[in-house]
Amino acid sequence: MPDFQIEGNDLQYVRVSLSGGESVYGDAGHLLSKSSTVGLQTIMMGGLFGALKREVTGGSFFVTKMNGPGDLAFAGIFPGKIIEIDLNNKGVLAESHSFLVAEESVNYDAKMAKLAAGLLGGEGLFLARFTGTGRLLMHAYGALEKFSLKPGERIQVEASHLLAMDDGMKYSVSRVGGIKTMLFAHEGLFFVEIEGPGDVFVHSLTAQQLGSAIAGFLPSGSQGGIRI
Asked: Which of 35, 90, 93, 95 is most buried by a 10 A CB count?
């Protein structure tokens, strides 16, 4: 069985140790390093139709299969936390960009969001769908909080902060605030209301927030590189 070890505090990465004959698959864009003995194989998980669904919904058309023996390291692209979920024959719906790596027994598919969620959420909510058995590792931007909802219990999450939730939970998207809020507020325009039972995972930082925070420190019109 592959061994996963999450390292670090606010800038986390995950170490994966594979024995001979063991495999995992992941997003090659998040791969930091690997042993020379680990083989890489690009595959279309779920066949052409499954790959097309992932592409349309913002996920990866191809995934990379890693074959042991040897060690690997994966990390996200922003400061944040890595979460490990043992599926145990249940499904999880998540932001596509949060996926890092999973055991070979985990199925990676895509599920079209409700129209309102896809258009109004702004970050491709509920696009990746993971089912089957085995462990799934995802990256959350910023801090991570888990809510375990009882039957009938509800929570409202600002749309861009929703990382993942159990498949099968009831949800709806609603606008919060009036015209002034829509024109002048930068956060909190749309909330996803989710009803239990099930687990909901929320991250404290979004790509938009990070981009807005550093935008004021970038030279106007700068395209990167060093000016001489």
From this structure: 95
